[in-house]
Amino acid sequence: MRVRCVTNKVSNLPTDSIVVRQKCHYFGNGEDFVHLTPGKSYVVYALVECQHGMWIYVTDDDYPSVWYPQGYVINLFEVVDERISRIWKPEVGVLFDDAMRGNLRSFEEWANDPNFYGRLVDKGSPEIMLFKERKEFMDLEYPCREEFKCLTHFDSKWCQCPSCGHVWEDDMHELGMKRCPVCREILVDELWSDK
């Protein structure tokens, strides 16, 4: 799932929103702006339905200095790709953190363990490594042609990065995007099929 930020200003949310009424509780010190860039897209790593509405967890503009995904109310975004990750658990887990309790959809380890997110925030080493692995998969899972360049293919095995010119052999097309092994740029794999 991919969303695009439509506003990073909390006061732009509907005035009857619990988030606006309690923004100090959710965003600290009554800050009006959150760490998102309007017009930028973000991959959704978890989705929570709770008494405060729909929330999504994304790595915001503070990533990687803040190493974990942050929860934001869905009203700050528009959905640009509604496909959920293939590694998300089909059943619903339960999220317990200081801010909310609700139904959670995410990858298995997070969805099955109500303490996973707390350990991730507290810099639990196994949780950080696991989140990085899941994040990399979800970041590359579905193509985003509006934001990323396309990989140059010579045939079904050989491809080239249009940015650095590196050529490599790669006949795996299970993800919609690839990362150049040299410059690390994310590129759309046009040979990938969603079928």
For the structure shown, list the relevant keywords.
2 domains, alpha+beta, 195 residues, 13 strands
Oligomer: single chain
The structure class reads alpha+beta
Q: What is the helix content?
A: 10-25%
Which band does the percent of strand residues land in? 25-35%
Spans of at least 5 consecutive residues whose pLDDT stays below 50 are none
Strand order of the largest sheet: 5-4-3-8-7
The Cα radius of gyration reads 18 Å
Work out the number of β strands.
13
> Alpha-carbon distance between the termini?
17 Å
Instruction: List the domain count as a whole number.
Output: 2
Shape: globular
- Mean pLDDT value: 88
Q: What is the ordering of alpha helices and beta strands?
A: EHHEEEEEEEHHHEEEEE
**Number of DSSP helical runs:** 5
**How many strands, which pairing sense, and closed or not: the largest β-sheet?**
5 strands, antiparallel
Can you summarize this structure?
Helix content is 19%, strand content 26%.
Walkthrough of the structure:
- This protein has 195 residues and is α+β, with helices and mostly antiparallel strands.
- The protein has helices spanning 18-21, 23-27, 108-112, 116-121, 125-141, and strands at residues 2-5, 41-43, 46-50, 53-58, 70-73, 77-81, 93-96, 101-106, 152-153, 158-160, 167-169, 177-179, 186-188.
- It starts with a strand and ends in a 7-residue tail after the last strand.
